[in-house]
């Protein structure tokens, strides 16, 4: 029997001296794992739906993302992002290099 990965798939699409663009794809139940963003970044949802966010202190919230409605966050954000929904979820993350 094949065990399903709990880690979301990340595919770097562009990585140059100015930006890193990564596509994130989550099956139901997959997550990024706890991480800290070292650069300012923006996210462009490719799917509409909820993602569960667990912050550095263990606080839990739900972010409702909508296709094509980007958001920006500064460097230093620490969290784990979980697809607790029943469908696949995708977004593009653009990190802005200093």
What is the H/E string? EEEEEEEEE
> What is the average per-residue confidence, as pLDDT, rounded to a whole number?
95
Q: Which strand order spans the largest sheet, edge to edge or round the barrel?
A: 1-2-9-4-7
How far do the termini sit from each other?
A: 45 Å
Number of helices: 0
Rg for CA atoms: 13 Å
**What is the oligomer described by this structure?**
single chain
Largest sheet: 5 strands, antiparallel
Low-confidence stretches: none
Considering the chains and any ligands shown, give keywords for the structure:
single chain; 98 residues; mainly beta; five-stranded antiparallel sheet; four-stranded antiparallel sheet
List the helices and strands and how they pair.
Blueprint: E1 9-15, E2 19-26, E3 35-36, E4 40-45, E5 49-55, E6 60-65, E7 71-73, E8 78-82, E9 89-96
Antiparallel strand pairs: 1-2, 2-9, 3-8, 4-7, 4-9, 5-6, 5-8
């Amino acid at each position: 029997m094949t065990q399903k990965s709990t880690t979301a798939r990340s595919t770097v699409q562009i990585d140059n001296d100015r930006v890193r663009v990564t596509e994130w794809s989550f099956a139901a139940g997959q997550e990024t794992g706890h991480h800290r963003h070292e650069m300012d970044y923006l996210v462009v949802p490719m799917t509409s739906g909820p993602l569960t966010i667990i912050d550095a202190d263990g606080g839990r919230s739900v972010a409702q993302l909508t296709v094509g409605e980007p958001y920006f966050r500064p460097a230093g954000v620490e969290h784990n992002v979980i697809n607790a929904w029943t469908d696949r979820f995708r977004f593009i993350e653009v990190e802005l290099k200093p």
